[in-house]
C-alpha cells in the first residue's frame, strides 16, 4: 500500500478546503451526534443507484444494496456521496434496536424525510419477519448518525467515466472510500512531475479536468480529518498512459480517517 501525508496544499486546494472545513473549534464530533427525522423508501433500488452521485449500477454492491437518497445538508453538493450512516426506526413493535447501515448514493429533495431508502434497507430496520409489515407504513420516524464505511480489503478506487476524451478531457469517480471522511479536493499530475493540476467536482462523486497531463497519471486528494484537511496520494501510477474509459483502477490507498465535522447543534 503506497500513500503519504504532506504538509502543503496547492493554493486552489487550500482555499477550497478552508471554505469546506471552517468548523468552530467548539463543534461536536459528528459521529457522536444522533439526529431525529423520518425515512421513506423506493420500491426499486435502481432508482437510487442511478441517482445524483453518479455511481450507477456499481452502487448496488455497496453495503449489501442498503442505499439511500439524503437531504442537501447530508448530500453536501456531492461531498456526502458514499457516506455511511447507521439508521434505526423508532417503532418498537416492528423495528430492531440494532438498525441498519446505509450508503448515500443520491439526493433527496423531499421536505418530509431526511432519507429515502432502498426497500431492502427499509426492511432491514425491522425485526426478523416484520420487514413487509414495516413497508406498509411508508414513512417512519428514525434516529441516525454518521458511521465509518468499511470496505474490508478494498482500497480507494478510481473509475474513468465514459465521458472522458483523451487527451483533452478526463472525468473520474471515486469508489470504496473508507473511514468517515469526505473528499474535498483532487489534483492530478504525470508520474514524477511536480506540476499538479486541480480537478473540479462535476457532480456527485465525479471529478473532471480539461487540463489532462500526458503519460501515466498519479493523484493526490484532500479528505476531511479532525477539524482540518489531510492530503493523501498514491506513490505509483494510478492511471496508465493508455488509460481507458469504463475501467476501474486501484489507487493503492486505503482511507481510514475519522473526521470530526462541525455539526453543532446535534
Automatic annotation (TrEMBL):
<dbReference type="InterPro" id="IPR036749">
    <property type="entry name" value="Expansin_CBD_sf"/>
</dbReference>
<dbReference type="GO" id="GO:0009653">
    <property type="term" value="P:anatomical structure morphogenesis"/>
</dbReference>
<dbReference type="InterPro" id="IPR005795">
    <property type="entry name" value="LolPI"/>
</dbReference>
<dbReference type="InterPro" id="IPR036908">
    <property type="entry name" value="RlpA-like_sf"/>
</dbReference>
<feature type="signal peptide">
    <location>
        <begin position="1"/>
        <end position="27"/>
    </location>
</feature>
<dbReference type="Pfam" id="PF01357">
    <property type="entry name" value="Expansin_C"/>
</dbReference>
<protein>
    <recommendedName>
        <fullName>Expansin-like EG45 domain-containing protein</fullName>
    </recommendedName>
</protein>
<dbReference type="InterPro" id="IPR007118">
    <property type="entry name" value="Expan_Lol_pI"/>
</dbReference>
<dbReference type="InterPro" id="IPR009009">
    <property type="entry name" value="RlpA-like_DPBB"/>
</dbReference>
<comment type="similarity">
    <text>Belongs to the expansin family.</text>
</comment>
<keyword id="KW-0732">Signal</keyword>
<dbReference type="GO" id="GO:0005576">
    <property type="term" value="C:extracellular region"/>
</dbReference>
<dbReference type="Pfam" id="PF03330">
    <property type="entry name" value="DPBB_1"/>
</dbReference>
<dbReference type="InterPro" id="IPR007117">
    <property type="entry name" value="Expansin_CBD"/>
</dbReference>
<dbReference type="GO" id="GO:0009505">
    <property type="term" value="C:plant-type cell wall"/>
</dbReference>
<keyword id="KW-0964">Secreted</keyword>
<dbReference type="GO" id="GO:0009506">
    <property type="term" value="C:plasmodesma"/>
</dbReference>
<feature type="domain" description="Expansin-like CBD">
    <location>
        <begin position="168"/>
        <end position="251"/>
    </location>
</feature>
<dbReference type="InterPro" id="IPR007112">
    <property type="entry name" value="Expansin/allergen_DPBB_dom"/>
</dbReference>
<feature type="domain" description="Expansin-like EG45">
    <location>
        <begin position="50"/>
        <end position="154"/>
    </location>
</feature>
